[in-house]
Specification:
It is built from seven helices and six strands. By secondary structure, it is an alpha+beta fold. The protein has three domains: 76 residues, PAS domain (Beta-Lactamase); 68 residues; 86 residues, Histidine kinase-like ATPase, C-terminal domain (Heat Shock Protein 90), CATH 3.30.565.10. The strands form two sheets. Strands 1-2-3 form a three-stranded antiparallel β-sheet, with helices on both faces. Helix 4 packs antiparallel against helix 5, helix 4 crosses helix 7 and helix 6 runs parallel beside helix 7. The radius of gyration is 26 Å and the shape is elongated. The protein starts with a helix and ends in an 18-residue tail after the last strand. This is histidine kinase. Its EC number is 2.7.13.3.
Length: 250
């Protein structure tokens, strides 16, 4: 509560995660010396023992003659943003592992089989051609997985529309990309992140929520950011009981 922070100026440091405490204390010391606003992101431990990420922004407040009156601060819960960042890294690592295994288990094995047939001077050119054709198709699929969004041809909208069509065909569900308005320019890295997030959200909706209808929407904001939403009619996550107190659950 606010009154607790007023009574104990070091309370923010005390409730910080042990690994982040030094960084928070250093930030608070330096905030008074700087002329402008400064921010730091760190973890706190709530009364119930939960770990939450917050973004803390503060700036010194001066009175007449430049006298230091203290600092003005605000805290924002960014736990969900941090979770999404971890998910992006996890999805990327999972994709790299999957592609590596696919190359080892299929592409390399097929090429080895074709090499053995050629070395044996087989009279079955059709068999060799079939192996090479299958390997080429798989290699093209892996290349598409590495770069799922072609910025020059359709960009993120085209890639998401193709992803929705693929899920609809494979799982027999209604999966649509809702019409989108004007979007800001999105670079390849951002577009790929958006694609991976949508890909993971669709997989969760199909595997865990047992969804039968999924809608993907993409919209641009005036500040230049892009909002991706994936909505389904699945079972969802059970609602947790409401918490009393501040939004951070302190």
């Amino acid at each position: 509560r606010r009154d607790e922070f007023r009574r104990d100026p070091r309370l923010l440091v005390k409730i910080s995660h042990a690994e982040d405490r030094k960084a928070v204390a250093r930030h608070l010391r330096e905030c008074g010396k700087r002329g402008g606003a400064a921010s730091v992101s760190f973890r706190i431990i709530t009364r119930k023992g939960r770990e939450r990420w917050i973004e803390h922004i503060c700036q010194p407040v001066h009175g007449a003659g430049g006298r230091n009156l203290g600092r003005r601060a605000s805290n924002r819960d960014i736990t969900e943003r941090k979770r999404l960042e971890r998910d992006i890294l996890r999805i990327g690592e999972w994709e790299r592992q999957r592609i590596g295994l696919d190359i080892h288990d299929h592409v390399c094995q097929d090429l080895m089989a074709a090499r053995m047939l050629l070395a044996a001077k087989t009279s079955d050119p059709a068999g060799i051609d079939d192996i090479l054709r299958r390997t080429l198709e798989r290699a093209r699929g892996l290349a598409k997985d590495l770069y799922p969004v072609d910025i020059d041809v359709g960009g993120i909208v085209s890639a998401l529309r193709a992803l929705a069509s693929e899920k609809e065909r494979l799982y027999g569900v209604a999966c649509r990309l809702k019409p989108v308005g004007p979007l800001p320019d999105v670079d390849r890295e951002t577009a790929t992140h958006l694609y991976r997030i949508a890909q993971e959200a669709l997989s969760n909706a199909l595997r865990h929520a047992k969804a039968r209808s999924i809608a993907i929407s993409l919209a641009g904001r005036k500040d230049g950011t892009v909002v991706l939403r994936v909505k389904d009619d699945g079972t969802g996550i059970p609602k947790s009981p409401k918490r009393a107190g501040m939004g951070l659950g302190i």
